[in-house]
Amino acid sequence: MRLSRYFLPILRDTPKEAEIVSHRLMLRAGMIRQQSAGIYSWLPLGLRVLNKINAVVREEQNRSGAIEILMPTIQSADLWRESGRYDAYGKEMLRIKDRHERDMLFGPTNEEMVTDIFRSYVKSYKDLPLNLYHIQWKFRDEVRPRFGVMRGREFLMKDAYSFDIDKDAARHAYNRMFTAYLRTFARLGLKAIPMRADTGPIGGDLSHEFIVLASTGESQVFCHKDYLDFETPAIDTDFDSVEGLQGIVDKWTSLYAATEEMHEAPAFEALPAESQLSARGIEVGHIFYFGTKYSEPMGATVAGPDGTPAPVHMGSYGIGPSRLVAALIEAGHDDGGIIWPDEIAPFDIAVLNLKVGDAATDGACEQLYKALLAKGYDALYDDTDTRPGGKFATADLIGVPWQIIVGPKGLAEGKVEIKRRADGERELVSLEAALDRFKGKAA
Ligand code: ATP
Ligand code: MG
C-alpha cells in the first residue's frame, strides 16, 4: 500500500474523551471512529487488524473441529419467547418492530437461533458431536459503554455452540474449546489465564473466563503466578483425544485462578506470598456448559442408540475480536505508539522514503517495496512528502513491526536502515542485505 493513496487519518493531538491508552491510540492511529456512544466505524487500519485477529480465531476454531456458519444480526422475538429470555433479558437487548409490527431484536447472543437451526436438521446421536460457530456483530445496550471498543454497544463476537448426546461428551466439547482458546490467545501474543467463572443457576464447574492481565482491566482477578509460565498446547494437539485434552484442561485448572465474583480469599491467601498474583484483568473469552437449558424448552432433542429422544447437551463459547484489538494495544505499546505482535500487525513492513523526489531514494524505495510485495508481505510504502520526523512518528504510532528507512545520505554509502519497532534496535545494511533479510512471508 502506498501511503499517498491510502486512507490513514492520523490525529496529531491526543483525544480528550479517551480515558485509556488503547482508546487514545486507536483514535490517534486512525483505526476507528465513534458514530454514537459505543458504536464505531472501523477505518482501514483498524479493519486490517480486526481481520487478522479473526483469521487466527477462525484457524484455531477450525482446527478444534468447529464449523463456521453465519447467522443474521436481526432475530425474531418469537425464538426468545420460546426460551423464556425475551422478557428476562432486560434493557441490554435492543428491541425493534418491523413494518408489520412484529417484535424483532438485534442479537446480543445466539443460543436460541442456533438451537433452532439444530432442531430443524439434527435428529440422531449419529450426527453428534457438532460445534457451529460464527463471527458476527452483536448489540448490547450496555449501561456504560466506555474505553472505545473495549466495552462497546455494537461489538464483534466469535460465538460457538456445541451439541452433544450427554454430559460426558459435552465435557469433551468444552475441553476442545478450552484448548483452542489457549492456542488462540497465545498466537495473538497474549497471556490469557482461564479463571473459574460463575455458572449461575445451572451450577457445576464448567465455566471459565479467559483473562488478560492489564492495569486498565475492568475486573479484579486473583491467581497463581505460575500460570504465566505455563506452556501453550502444541499445534499438533489431537482434538479427538479425550484423555489428552482432559490432561491439558486439568493442568490449566490445577492452580488457583478466580475473578472477584468467584474469589475465595482463604484459598488464595494459603498460597505462598510470592505465588500470589492479584491484578486487574480484561475478559477476552468466556466458555460455558449449560446442559439442556435451551434444548429442553425449545424441543431440540436427539434420539440415542436405543431410539429414545432426549434434549441435547449444549455449551457456548465466546471471544471478543473487537475487544481484543484494544486488549492487544493495552498489552503492547510505548510512548511512541502501538507495538503489534507480528501476526496481527496491520502491515508487516514499512518502507520510509526520507526524500521523495530524489531519484536514487525513490528508486531504492520502489525496488524494496515491490520486492516485499512479491514476497507476500503486507508492505506500507510511505511515499508522501512529509518531513522525516513525521514519517518516523507515524510509523511508530501505527506499530508496524519493521521499518526500512531509506534516505540519500545512507544510500550514498549504499546503505539503508532497518528498525525493529518493538525495541527500537537499528541496523545499517546494504540494500541487497535488506532485501535478503525478508525472505518471504511463509519463510
Ligand atoms: P462482560 O463481563 O465484559 O460484560 P460478558 O460476560 O457479558 O462480558 P459474554 O457474554 O461472555 O460477555 O461475551 C463473550 C465475549 O464477548 C466476552 O468475553 C468479550 O470478549 C466480548 N464482549 C462482551 N461484551 C462486550 C462489549 N460490550 N464490548 C466488546 N466486547 C464484548
Ligand atoms: Mg462473560
From TrEMBL:
Ligase as UniProt keyword: yes
CDD domains: ProRS_anticodon_short (cd00861), ProRS_core_prok (cd00779)
EC number: 6.1.1.15
A single GO molecular function term of this UniProt record: proline-tRNA ligase activity
Chief location bin: cytoplasm
Aminoacyl-transfer RNA synthetases class-II family profile domain: residues covered: 38-341
Reactions catalysed according to its record: tRNA(Pro) + L-proline + ATP = L-prolyl-tRNA(Pro) + AMP + diphosphate
Keyword terms, alphabetized: Aminoacyl-tRNA synthetase, ATP-binding, Cytoplasm, Ligase, Nucleotide-binding, Protein biosynthesis
GO CC entries: cytosol
Any single biological process term in GO: prolyl-tRNA aminoacylation
Subcellular location: Cytoplasm
SUPFAM superfamilies: Class II aaRS ABD-related, Class II aaRS and biotin synthetases
PROSITE patterns named among the record's database cross-references: AA_TRNA_LIGASE_II (PS50862)
Subunit description: Homodimer.
Entry function: Catalyzes the attachment of proline to tRNA(Pro) in a two-step reaction: proline is first activated by ATP to form Pro-AMP and then transferred to the acceptor end of tRNA(Pro).
PANTHER family on file: MITOCHONDRIAL RIBOSOME PROTEIN L39/PROLYL-TRNA LIGASE FAMILY MEMBER (PTHR42753), PROLINE--TRNA LIGASE (PTHR42753:SF2)
Similarity comment text for this entry: Belongs to the class-II aminoacyl-tRNA synthetase family. ProS type 2 subfamily.
Protein known as: Proline--tRNA ligase
Organism the protein comes from: Bosea lathyri
